[in-house]
Amino acid sequence: MSREPSHSVVAKPLLEVDRVTLQYVTPERIVTATRRVSFDLQAQDRFVLLGPSGCGKSTLLKSIGGFIAPTEGEIRLAGERVREPGADRMFVFQEFDQLLPWLSVVDNVVFPMRATKRFPRAEWRDRARAAVEKVGLGRFADVFPHTLSGGMKQRVAIARALAMEPKVLLMDEPFAALDALTRRRMQRELLELWDDIRFSLVFVTHSIQEAIVLASRIVVMTPHPGRIVAEFDATRFGHDQAGGSEFEAFSERINRLLFAGEEIAHG
Can you name the CATH fold of 41-70+168-267? Predict the structure, then answer.
């Protein structure tokens, strides 16, 4: 596995994925989704798992969330082994229907607080409204999800997750179903939100451009089963650099790695 050098002082990791193998059973066979995957997430990292469909990215994210137990290895959050789901890890998924249609925007954001009793009841609505304001939807706080566009629904989902003040925000291709312009706008808004709040992020995508724009660190995975073949520091990139010659050269470098991984997987 190639690794670009980093000259920053490395603190104790917030999240440790340690030689994790994930398997699931189908009627025909046992499928190995990932094999001995290891990486660390530092606090306030924007960490992107990049790879083609079928490389185990989403399965790995669910395991970090506590929904799938590793077959081998372990996952640790703040030094404690992850054994089950918890409010310290919040998800944002690709689907627009992750909001409850019978609740208003603000009540959707309140919902996980009510379910987990994470904060005092008297704080729920104030916290929810503050989160909705941060994603730019303050004037839509009392409307219902069916009146919102796809991008607006995803902003509500992000607000709902961040209102819980999780240790790690887990995002599984949350912008993949959006049109190209809305997707770019949501990428920019996510970065602006990170600048404001500095949350810790694990983001799954199969888009090279999206990975480079959003990440401070990128790991590249190969399919069948998923393994990490490279890790890169992407802090020098962002929306201002997208489309520049260095950006394009970096993108092509990652593309070659992904293509080589596909050849190995199917060879």
Answer: Rossmann fold (3.40.50)
